[in-house]
Structures are given as C-alpha cells and as structure tokens.
Amino acid sequence: MIPQARCVMGSWQPVANLRDYVSQHPPGVTFFLCVLSLALTFLSLGSYTHTHRLPNPDTQDWNHFLSSLANLQLCARANGTAMETVSSPPFGKEEVCGTVLLNSTQSPPSITHLSLWVPLAVMDSSDSQSLSDLCLHGTLLASQLGLTGNEAVNVTLMFSSPSVGGNSHACLSVSAPTHILPPALLPPVCPANEGTSSPVRAFAMEISSQKPSASQSCYSLQYTPDPTLTAMLTQKELGLASRHLIQVSVCLLGVCVLLCFSASLTHSHVRRYHSNGLELQREPLIDS
C-alpha cells in the first residue's frame, strides 16, 4: 500500500517562517534593520531633546560672530590706510581705541554702536607671543563675520594690559547696521579704559588663503566660546521637536511590526509528511 502524504499548509508557524525568511531574503532583512535603526535613532533624539537644552541653529549669536572674527588674520598696513576690501561706511561716530571720532553727518538711526568685553586673545604671527596694549581697527564685510548681507562693519579691537584684565579679553567696538547684528544675549560692556593707544589700521584675510609678506605685521585671534552667548531653543520649540521625532519613530516602529507580521505569514516551501508523521520530506519539483 502506497503511503499517502498530507499537506499541513494550514498551520501557522511564525518562528519557523521568520527563520526561513531571514535565511532566504537578505535584502528584506537589511531593509528591516535600516528602518528599525532609523526608528530607534529618532526615538533617542526625541528623548534627548525632551531632557536637554539645545542651541538654536536658525538664530545668529555672538559666539558665531566672534568665532568668524577669530578665523580671520588681521594685518597692519604700512601706509595707514583702511582695509582693501571696502571703504569706511558713513557712520555718524566711530570709536577708535578710546577716541570717539565725529563725522559731519548724523548717525543714521539704523546703525548700532556697541562696545563689548569679549574673550579674545591676540597672537603675533611672527613669534606667536601674546600681546597687550594693542589696538586694531578695520572695516570688514558682514559675510566675513558670519552675518547675512555684504554691509560694511567697523570693528575695533583693543587688547588691554594684564593690569586691566589680562590679555585673554579684549574690548570689541562694533558699528554696523542694526538688522545684521545678533539680536540678543550681548556680551558685557567694556570696562572703563585706563588709557588710549595709537590705532593700527588693519585689513583682514582668511588664515588659510595666503601667507602675509615679510614686511607686514599680522595678528591672529584666539576665541574661547562663552556658553552664555549661545542662543538656545525655547521649551516650546524643544517640546514640539521632541513630539515630532517621537511620532515619526512610532510610525517607523509600526512599519517594522507590519514587516515582521508579513514575514511570519510567508511560507518558504510546501511541507509534506508521510502518513506515519515521523519523517519530513520535500516534494521534488521534477520527477527523476
């Protein structure tokens, strides 16, 4: 009597089906792992955003302004003229190393004049020694300082002697259109000057662009970022970002669950058993 075979396709074996799917569909498994990793990443970012303060990438702050200034090399001009890039704008008044220069025209209302005490140190490129009692003045473009637009910005840096406050800080005087300056979180105001020094007219260039000539005296700046000057996201903005990240992660986890459920329903092959139920065989596709 020929033993009869019976098909058991009706029984659901999720673990066996998942194991077969993993071994026979590597691209699908790779896609699942990518989606799962992305979901866990968004979930971690959402939790981190909910419990930590983060800087606002859409708001310019004074840390960005001063870091851009420190990336420039200031070189003194022998003839005492202003910078090569732009001419001095018609500002109403200009503070040069403790001396206020008045122009014949009044200051436009859109121009802001600031004197700020910032953590900037100056280094001489020739001997790399810190300097004090030095005053540098020049006119820069807003784009050179990490600001929007190409307006001219008058910048004066006065490095005090160690008796005043050490050479790790400098008095930065800025005259620029109000709309291009960082809006809030100003550094402290400069302390009272004990004296004035002769201004050194300087022009700026990128540190990596070219080397100064031997006849030029160039100075590089070192800036220590101040965390109190960083524009941070508000609690409302952090909550909104955290909620969106968690919502996206939940959706991706739902996709992972659907992928697992679909794989558990997939039969990799038809299994047939002999009538005795002890020996598992696969039905050959081609009769020998």
How would you describe what is shown here?
- The longest helix is centred in the C-terminal third of the chain and has 30 residues, at 235-264.
- Mean pLDDT is 72; it is low at 1-9, 80-96, 98-107 and 269-282.
- With 288 residues, the chain is α+β, with helices and mostly antiparallel strands.
- The radius of gyration is 34 Å and the shape is elongated.
- The chain has an eight-stranded mixed beta sheet with strand order 5-9-8-7-10-2-11-6. It has a three-stranded antiparallel beta sheet with strand order 1-12-13, with no helix packed on it.
- It folds into two domains: 6-53 and 234-281, no CATH class; 62-229, no CATH class.
- The chain has helices spanning 14-24, 26-51, 62-70, 235-264, and strands at residues 6-7, 72-76, 93-96, 99-102, 111-118, 120-124, 134-141, 152-159, 170-177, 200-206, 218-223, 272-273, 280-281.
- Residues 18-231 form the TMEM248/TMEM219 domain.
* Poorly predicted regions: 1-9, 80-96, 98-107, 269-282
Number of helices: 4
- The average pLDDT score comes to 72
Strand content: 15-25%
Domain count, please report it: 2
- Please identify the structural class as seen in this structure: alpha+beta
Radius of gyration, in angstroms, nearest whole number: 34 Å
Task: Tell me the layout of helices and strands.
Layout: E1 6-7, H1 14-24, H2 26-51, H3 62-70, E2 72-76, E3 93-96, E4 99-102, E5 111-118, E6 120-124, E7 134-141, E8 152-159, E9 170-177, E10 200-206, E11 218-223, H4 235-264, E12 272-273, E13 280-281
Parallel strand pairs: 7-10
Antiparallel strand pairs: 1-12, 2-10, 2-11, 3-4, 5-9, 6-11, 7-8, 8-9, 12-13
Helix pairs in contact: 1-4, 2-4
Transmembrane segments: 245-265
Subcellular location: Membrane
Keywords: Membrane, Transmembrane, Transmembrane helix
